Amino acid sequence: MAIDVHRILGPGLLESTYKECLHYKIKKSGYFVEKEKTILLIFENTKLDCGFRIDLSVENKLVLELKAVDVLNDVHLAPVLIYRKSGNFKLGLLINFNVSH
Q1: Which of 2, 25, 80, 101 would staple 92 via disulfide (CB 3.0–4.6 Å)?
Q2: pLDDT score of 101 more than 80
Q3: What is the pLDDT at residue 52?
Q4: What pLDDT score does 100 carry?
Q5: Rounded Cα–Cα distance for residues 26 and 21 (Å)
Q6: Strands 62-67 and 91-96
Q7: Per-residue model confidence as pLDDT tens digits over 32-85
């Protein structure tokens, strides 16, 4: 679905545009998807409200972190790992829409 969104829109748009379109496509396909889901940070076995928001959560199993940047680096992956652990999600995916393919 993310590839379909990218094919239709192409690179160069704001992250929020891709998020809205991908949310629409996932929901239209019949999956339970949440946008901007709040998640607590687990720090020293304590849940803290740090204002974390997952871009998209699918079926409460998959975290989608969306970017529209020139180059992905380790700092972009860190939230995916934190969200997976804190939210007890099975999978996490980092998607960059600001590339040609």
Answers
A1: 80
A2: no
A3: 86
A4: 82
A5: 9
A6: parallel
A7: 999 999 988 878 888 888 878 999 999 999 999 999 999 999 999 999 998 898
Q: For 12-45, b where at least 16 C-beta lie within 10 A, e where not — what string?
A: eeebeebbebbbebbeeeeeebebebebeeeeee
Pairing of the two strands 33-43 and 91-96:
unpaired
In whole angstroms, what is the distance from residue 97 CA to residue 36 CA?
18
Q: Where are the domains of the chain?
A: 2-96
Best CA proximity match to 94, nearest among 52, 61, 41, 56: 56
Give pTM, 2 decimals. Answer: 0.88
Burial of 63 (0-12, 13-18, 19+ CB in 10 A): buried
